[in-house]
């Protein structure tokens, strides 16, 4: 299995490290030709406007949309979740629009309001998952095909639609591999993850 | 729910990696920077080239300017306070800026001590010329480091010197036997704990950007190839003849820093880069990089 981590801007190395700890090959992706031969793509945290502009400039938007239409697995964290959304509230940002959600950027406030908290995420099993929220977005609306995996204050902060997975926090900044393992299970079509579709 | 933790402070710096942080003095400039793809802006009253030309005491920017810039863009906004001026830092935190740069570009307020940055919820970035200086700042609570270079010169030579110095020292620490680390920590003027950590990991515990002298897309890519996690551009954008084009080109060269064909393409027809200064023509007492202890 080979996973591409979009590397136009943001915390790329952190995702590559998490995936290599799960014995999975992960490579940085900056150009459309580099998407060939991948089994899945990760869109990391970073600055969503920067990543969005660079995806457009270097013609990565359409190929990723086409892959998503074919059921290709994609995992986005924070800025990655914003880019996966159909709509971004109060923003001129043009997202990929491959997930039926509307997100709000900086939904919890500016950096002084960034926080850590323990989350309940039933699909990852018992016990909490440590959520690190940095100028984080939240899901304001999710259409019927979207499964909500985790909520915080009645707002969705982790969602799944088909093989597309997104969260508002940063599993890649923790030592907890469960979220990435859950994504890899989606990629391989593992029964446990599929049963939650 | 915990705010202002080390994880969320150092984590924001991690999210800025691979990006360009641009100095801006008006909301209009901030919008140009955001439109070009900057991952953050530094709100200032004057860019370093103008601070250098004006002389006198350079202080924290007027809160009106900072607030107007915060309203104009949705990307993170940084602002500078003077070295050791913890009340300017308190004011910037109260304004809600996303990152504070305790910066040698402003006139120092304390010639012995830096701010104890652990006391703040907002993260700090600090300048360094070598590994010892970087580790002293991290010990004080800096969540991000930038090599200083020589701001406002459009001359990359000092930025290269400082980045190479940091990486040379890291390589040296990695190869040292453990019983020599105490003496090396003493020589560096750095806490042993951090020296031990780098001996093990071979990397700084926080993100390290390059700053001070970046004036072209090739300058930005040079610093990235030398191991910078990202780039600050001070006067280089808005002192060039075509700021929109220069800003875009530097952002693209930073992303594609390993691809000379793309760097060549984005470097075409940018107009004149900012006027450069030979460091040797600057009187030693006017050098900014020597500020910091």
What keyword list fits this structure?
heterodimer, A: about 200 residues, alpha/beta, Rossmann fold, seven-stranded mixed β-sheet, three-stranded mixed β-sheet, 6 helices, B: about 290 residues, eight-stranded parallel β-sheet, 13 helices, 9 strands, about 45% helix, about 15% strand, globular
Rg of Cα set of chain B: 18 Å
Fourth-level CATH superfamily of chain A = Class I glutamine amidotransferase (GATase) domain
Please report the distance between the alpha carbons of the first and last residues of chain B: 36 Å
- H and E order of chain B: EHEHEHHEHEEHEHHHEHEHHH
Query: What share of the residues of chain A lie within helices?
Result: 25-40%
What is the top-level CATH class of chain A?
Answer: Alpha Beta
Which residues of chain B sit in consecutive blocks of at least 5 with pLDDT less than 50? none
Task: Give the DSSP E fraction of chain B (strand runs of 2 or more residues).
Answer: 5-15%
Could you explain the architecture of this structure?
The complex is a heterodimer of chains A (197) and B (293). Chain A is α/β, with parallel strands linked by helices. Chain A has six helices and twelve strands. In chain A, strands 2-1-3-4-12-11-10 form a seven-stranded mixed beta sheet. In chain A, strands 5-6-9 form a three-stranded mixed beta sheet. In chain A, a hairpin with a 2-residue loop joins strand 11 and strand 12. Chain B has 293 residues and is of the alpha/beta class. In chain B, helix 5 links the parallel strand 4 and strand 5. Chains A and B meet through helix 1, helix 2 and strand 7 of A and strand 1, helix 1 and helix 12 of B. Strand 7 of chain A pairs antiparallel with strand 1 of chain B, so a sheet runs across the interface.
